[in-house]
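User: Teach me something about this protein's shape.
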Amino acid sequence: MIDTVGLVFVGFGLFFDLAGCLGLVRLPDVYNRLQASTKCVTLGTCSILFGTFLITGINGAGIKALLCIVFVALTSPVAAHAIARASHRGGVKLWKGTVVDRYAEDQEGEA
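Assistant: First, the predicted structure itself:
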C-alpha cells in the first residue's frame, strides 16, 4: 500500500516537472520562466523525493531523500529571487504584456 502512495507522489512530481519544462519553453520572459521553474523544482522534485522516501523506507537512501527535500525547499525560492532581482537590476526588460512592476515602484519610492 505504501509503495502505491509513493508511486502516486512520484507521478505527481513527474507531472509538475513536465509542466515546469513546458513553462520554460512557452513563457515569454525570464521572470515568468523563473516562476515556472521554481514551482517545477519545489513541487515536482520534492514530490519525487518524498515518493522515493516512501518507497525505500527509513534507511540511508530514504533519509538522504528527506534531507534533499529540505535543501531544495530552502534554496530554490531564494535562488529564484536572487536571479530575478539581479535580472531586474541588470536591465532585463519585462514582457510587453506585463501589467505591473512592483520592484520598479519600490525603487522609485526610495529615491
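Now, about its shape. Residues 2-94 form one domain. The helical segments are 2-26, 30-56, 60-89, 102-110. If you'd like, I can walk through any region in more detail.
User: That's plenty for now, thanks!
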